[in-house]
Amino acid sequence: MSAIIEIKDLTKEFKVLERREGLKGSLQDLFSRNYKTVRAVDNVSMTIEQGEIVGYLGPNGAGKSTTIKMMTGVLEPTSGSILTNGIVPYQNRSKNAQEIGVVFGQRTQLWWALPLVESFKILKDIYQISDKDYNDMLDLYRSLVDIDPLLHKPVRQMSLGQRTLSDILAAFLHNPKIVFLDEPTIGLDVSMKANIRKLIHALNKEKNTTVILTTHDMGDVDALCQRIVIIDKGKMLYDNDIEHLKKFFGSYRILKVRPTGDLEAQAESVKNELEGFSVRVIDDWISILVDEEKAGVMDVLGRLQKSYKIKDMQLEEISTEEVIKKIYEGGVN
To answer: I need a labelling partner for 177 at 20 to 30 A (CA). Which of 55, 86, 146, 293 fits?
Structure first.
């Protein structure tokens, strides 16, 4: 494999007006403006190989979108370097656009009033796709999903799931080297999420397309990504594969208990008793994150049984979602 994206010491800063409060402050802002510098991306470096599916994760405001905008050429870095497929994106935006595909959540790139096939034909002309390559892609799509019922359906008549699927097909139509997917399964039901994930995985495998996925849905990460990069407050916190991450948190277990009585009230009581533990209510269970290097699961359960009547319990491995949450909270140095 060869590197398709090379990022070194990437930094992006913005000047932001510091507004003062109240009418007096607004009047002061008219004549004297105070600006502060906000560093949205702070010295990020990474290399992504051709054909990888990389989960680019972080809480809201972490700097994910800013990084993606620099990769796509929408923003110019303040400092550092970035190459996508050997191109400096912000210097060669048109050339870079020919080599990438983009799907942003619920914002469609398709023509709203036209049937899907007409949108595909417009994209064929925009990207100068040959008749053979266009027909080959349609044949590939037919082998992966049942698109024929959608081809002659206006986009405005499609369900959210059908529109998302169509947007992903449109992003891959010109056989780009890199596809950026921002929250591709947001708002979809479980069945459609599974179909979308299967489609993304199949297209990546068939065309060896590099996929950069930003999502808050850990189901997407588990289903698609072998490698994850985590960013928070502009700084990179983690860059490795998921299995390595889970091994790092191998001492953690999820203890779920269901006591008698009001669940919310009992959960508050458990939080007070198990100070320092992460305690949440999830699907009619009180979920407790236990670090067995500090306290054994059976010891925690024994403490609870002394104070509460436990009618049911479960023990689970820590999920990717819990691991990511621990990293956001500073669990990895």
So the answer is: 146
Q: Do residues 179 and 171 make contact, with C-beta atoms less than 8 angstroms apart?
A: yes
Q: Regarding beta strands 252-259 and 285-291, do their DSSP bridges make them parallel or antiparallel, or are they unpaired?
A: antiparallel
CA 306 to CA 243: how far, in whole Å? 36
By the 8 A CB rule, do 77 and 70 touch? yes
* Segment 149-188, tens digit of pLDDT: 999 999 999 998 899 999 999 999 999 999 999 888 888 8
DSSP assignment of 19-31 equals: PPSHHHHHHHHHH
3-state DSSP call for residue 224? helix
Question: Which contiguous run of DSSP H or E holds residue 206?
Answer: helix 190-207
Question: What is the C-alpha separation between 8 and 81, in angstroms, rounded?
Answer: 5
Rounded CA-CA distance 270/222 in Å is 30
Check if the beta carbon of residue 259 is closer than 8 Å to that of residue 308: yes
52: pLDDT strictly greater than 90: yes
Rounded CA separation 106/160 (Å): 8
Strands (E), the chain: 3-17, 35-49, 53-57, 79-84, 100-104, 178-182, 210-214, 227-232, 235-241, 252-259, 278-282, 285-291, 310-317
Quote the CA–CA distance of 201 and 294 in Å, as a whole number: 39
* Residue owning tokens 């905008």: 69
